[in-house]
């Protein structure tokens, strides 16, 4: 058997998101209906992975074909039951539920949008396949009007497959064990090159939305210049539907008090805002995270009636970068923050508004100003709060630990980046695109690969710098030459010279200096840290204690202070914000314990120590 068997029935549709993926927001012309809630659920048997397709599980109520259990959406399915087979499942899982539609939607165009499904998804409405998507952390949407029934029950079925291959982003492989002394015939496992648990399922909201038949498909907004007295933005609008020619476009800008401050007409153009309230990140100005609203309205001139309306929050802020730093509205930025995960107890990677809100409270308490979406795009609900609360975000795609660089992988990687930029291009909080984490960037073939990727991202969005998070020695790496900002992960005193905290300051200074001298680019240390079991103490400190975690931080801080003075270290992000789930390993006691908070979001001693530092860093 070959790994491809697992998703033989999926045809990967590239370019599915050439059109817009605006978040479904109700307006005078738009309505939404959530399909979140309890769905019926079953996993496919390990030895009969394609049975659901063969027996058409999507064509009838799921319980007619297979024993079902209840499954909350959104959530990962892994930690919901007592069953280790469900936790560790590899391959197809099936979800199904029913719904009714309001009559008023009959004359509208109806779409369904998934915030994210990890990794492959196939979707059927009333037994008809309507779309499929690959890539676990980004939204996809499809129009389903013609497949819906009004006045009758509708059925939606989703088949989800979490198998990772050498050509998925991130990569993984199915390994068959042929040693019959140790493994029964046909035994296989999923392996992957990253340490976070590969949670699976319908992870983010499922939303039905109704829009007029001629509709606003996409909006792009960019700040082109700012001074204290004038902010200039450029907007453009894409329309969809058959009667586009009948409509004109009105663009209006409202301030946070809902006062109209500027307007324009047409599909695209420049709008000037007098005395703008700029969008500032935390700690750089008294005004933090100021958002305007761009209201786009269609108008049917012949009939003199209004058409579709969409309101998009946006910030007026301008990014520049050079060999010494990144600048927002002309001021240089120092990132003080975290590498993180979307990882909630029981929900796994599923959207959890409680954990999400608590995490922002903790990040504000500790006086951080930034985070990286390590190692995949985070939910739109989470990103909204970054915009509102003025956090700087390094927005990363799930290209973690790449270790071969062929054209098929390049294609999938580029598709992920297109979808990420499409989703997050209008967010003021996003100040840098990260094209991946810790690739084998010492391999010569990766040079052409990353050159191609960086050029693509610059083409998609020239307004933000591009980075890649590196962990190979600067003398061997071939990717940094293409980047605007260099990000590095270094675990001195942990993965190397374990326990030798006396070497950390020396090694970190040498390391960052070497990168800067080779490339003359600003550097962010995006990961450093030590595992610590909450409550474990020794003196003198040894690894795994809270005490050693703090000593390691202290030694790194000494290096950061000196490097910052040298003028090219532009940020420090500790690994990790909170402890998180990993696959089972004898060196990871239930997870990665490098959090400054526990997985329950309680502070380790490190959190208090970090808070003192972040409070004094400006
Ligand atoms: C890394 C990875 C991160 C891991 C971390 C660790 O370099 O980027 O995903 O969790 O090390 O703790 O091993």
From TrEMBL:
<dbReference type="GO" id="GO:0005615">
    <property type="term" value="C:extracellular space"/>
</dbReference>
<dbReference type="InterPro" id="IPR006104">
    <property type="entry name" value="Glyco_hydro_2_N"/>
</dbReference>
<feature type="signal peptide">
    <location>
        <begin position="1"/>
        <end position="18"/>
    </location>
</feature>
<dbReference type="InterPro" id="IPR023232">
    <property type="entry name" value="Glyco_hydro_2_AS"/>
</dbReference>
<dbReference type="InterPro" id="IPR036156">
    <property type="entry name" value="Beta-gal/glucu_dom_sf"/>
</dbReference>
<dbReference type="GO" id="GO:0030246">
    <property type="term" value="F:carbohydrate binding"/>
</dbReference>
<feature type="domain" description="Glycosyl hydrolases family 2 sugar binding">
    <location>
        <begin position="35"/>
        <end position="212"/>
    </location>
</feature>
<dbReference type="InterPro" id="IPR013783">
    <property type="entry name" value="Ig-like_fold"/>
</dbReference>
<comment type="subunit">
    <text>Homotetramer.</text>
</comment>
<keyword id="KW-0458">Lysosome</keyword>
<dbReference type="Pfam" id="PF02837">
    <property type="entry name" value="Glyco_hydro_2_N"/>
</dbReference>
<comment type="function">
    <text>Plays an important role in the degradation of dermatan and keratan sulfates.</text>
</comment>
<protein>
    <recommendedName>
        <fullName>Beta-glucuronidase</fullName>
        <ecNumber>3.2.1.31</ecNumber>
    </recommendedName>
</protein>
<dbReference type="Pfam" id="PF00703">
    <property type="entry name" value="Glyco_hydro_2"/>
</dbReference>
<dbReference type="InterPro" id="IPR008979">
    <property type="entry name" value="Galactose-bd-like_sf"/>
</dbReference>
<dbReference type="InterPro" id="IPR017853">
    <property type="entry name" value="GH"/>
</dbReference>
<keyword id="KW-0326">Glycosidase</keyword>
<dbReference type="GO" id="GO:0005975">
    <property type="term" value="P:carbohydrate metabolic process"/>
</dbReference>
<dbReference type="InterPro" id="IPR023230">
    <property type="entry name" value="Glyco_hydro_2_CS"/>
</dbReference>
<dbReference type="InterPro" id="IPR006103">
    <property type="entry name" value="Glyco_hydro_2_cat"/>
</dbReference>
<feature type="domain" description="Glycoside hydrolase family 2 immunoglobulin-like beta-sandwich">
    <location>
        <begin position="214"/>
        <end position="317"/>
    </location>
</feature>
<dbReference type="GO" id="GO:0004566">
    <property type="term" value="F:beta-glucuronidase activity"/>
</dbReference>
<dbReference type="InterPro" id="IPR006102">
    <property type="entry name" value="Ig-like_GH2"/>
</dbReference>
<dbReference type="Pfam" id="PF02836">
    <property type="entry name" value="Glyco_hydro_2_C"/>
</dbReference>
<comment type="similarity">
    <text>Belongs to the glycosyl hydrolase 2 family.</text>
</comment>
<dbReference type="GO" id="GO:0019391">
    <property type="term" value="P:glucuronoside catabolic process"/>
</dbReference>
<dbReference type="InterPro" id="IPR006101">
    <property type="entry name" value="Glyco_hydro_2"/>
</dbReference>
<feature type="domain" description="Glycoside hydrolase family 2 catalytic">
    <location>
        <begin position="325"/>
        <end position="617"/>
    </location>
</feature>
<keyword id="KW-0378">Hydrolase</keyword>
<keyword id="KW-0732">Signal</keyword>
């Amino acid at each position: 058997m070959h790994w491809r068997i697992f998703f033989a029935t999926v045809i990967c549709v590239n370019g599915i998101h050439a059109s817009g993926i605006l978040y479904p927001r109700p307006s005078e012309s738009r309505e939404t209906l959530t399909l979140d809630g309890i769905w019926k659920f079953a996993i496919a048997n390990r030895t009969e992975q394609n049975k659901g397709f063969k027996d058409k599980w999507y064509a009838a109520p799921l319980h007619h074909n297979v024993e079902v259990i209840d499954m909350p959406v959104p959530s990962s399915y892994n930690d919901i039951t007592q069953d280790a087979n469900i936790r560790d499942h590899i391959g197809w899982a099936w979800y199904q539920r029913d719904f009714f539609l309001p009559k008023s939607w009959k004359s509208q165009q109806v779409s369904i949008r998934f915030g994210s499904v990890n990794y492959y998804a196939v979707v059927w409405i009333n037994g008809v396949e309507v779309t499929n998507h690959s890539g676990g952390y980004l939204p996809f949407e499809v129009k389903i009007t013609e497949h819906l029934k009004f006045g009758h029950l509708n059925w939606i079925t989703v088949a989800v497959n979490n198998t990772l291959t050498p050509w998925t982003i991130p990569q993984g492989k199915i390994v068959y064990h042929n040693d019959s002394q140790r493994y029964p015939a046909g035994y296989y496992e999923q392996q992957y090159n990253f340490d976070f648990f590969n949670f699976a399922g319908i992870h983010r909201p499922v939303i039905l939305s109704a829009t007029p038949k001629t509709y606003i498909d996409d909006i792009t907004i960019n700040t082109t210049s700012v001074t204290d007295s004038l902010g200039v933005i450029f907007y453009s609008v894409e329309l969809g539907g058959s009667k586009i020619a009948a409509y004109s476009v009105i663009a209006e800008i409202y301030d946070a008090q809902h006062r109209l401050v500027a307007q324009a007409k047409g599909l695209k153009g420049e709008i000037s805002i007098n005395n703008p309230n700029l969008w500032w990140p935390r700690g750089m100005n008294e005004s933090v995270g100021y958002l305007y609203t761009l209201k786009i309205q269609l108008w049917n001139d012949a009939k003199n009636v209004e058409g579709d309306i969409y309101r998009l929050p946006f910030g007026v802020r301008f990014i520049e970068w050079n060999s010494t730093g990144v600048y927002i509205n002309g001021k240089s930025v120092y990132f003080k923050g975290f590498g993180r995960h979307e990882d909630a107890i029981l929900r796994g990677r599923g959207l959890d508004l409680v954990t999400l809100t608590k995490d922002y409270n903790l990040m504000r308490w500790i006086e951080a100003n930034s985070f990286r979406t390590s190692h995949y795009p985070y939910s739109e609900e989470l990103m909204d709060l970054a915009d509102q609360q003025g956090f700087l975000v390094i927005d990363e795609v799930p290209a973690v630990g790449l270790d071969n660089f062929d054209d098929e992988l390049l294609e999938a990687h580029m598709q992920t980046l297109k979808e990420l930029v499409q989703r997050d291009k209008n967010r003021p909080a996003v100040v840098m695109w990260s094209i991946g984490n810790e690739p084998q960037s010492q391999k010569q073939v990766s040079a052409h690969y990353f050159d191609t990727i960086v050029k693509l991202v610059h083409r998609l969005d020239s307004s933000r710098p591009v980075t890649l998070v590196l962990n190979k020695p600067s003398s061997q790496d071939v990717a940094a030459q293409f980047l605007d900002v260099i990000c590095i992960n270094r675990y001195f005193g942990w993965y190397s010279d374990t326990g030798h905290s006396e070497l950390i300051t020396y090694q970190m200074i040498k390391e960052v200096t070497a990168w800067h001298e080779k490339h003359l680019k600003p550097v962010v240390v995006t990961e450093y840290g030590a595992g610590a079991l909450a409550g474990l103490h020794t003196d003198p400190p040894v690894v795994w204690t809270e005490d050693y975690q703090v000593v390691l931080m202290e030694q790194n801080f000494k290096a950061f202070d000196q490097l910052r003075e040298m003028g090219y270290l532009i940020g420090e992000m500790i690994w990790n914000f909170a402890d998180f789930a990993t696959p089972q390993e004898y060196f990871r006691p239930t997870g990665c314990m490098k959090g400054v908070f526990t997985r329950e979001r309680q502070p380790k001693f490190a959190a208090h120590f970090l808070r003192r530092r972040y409070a004094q860093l400006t």
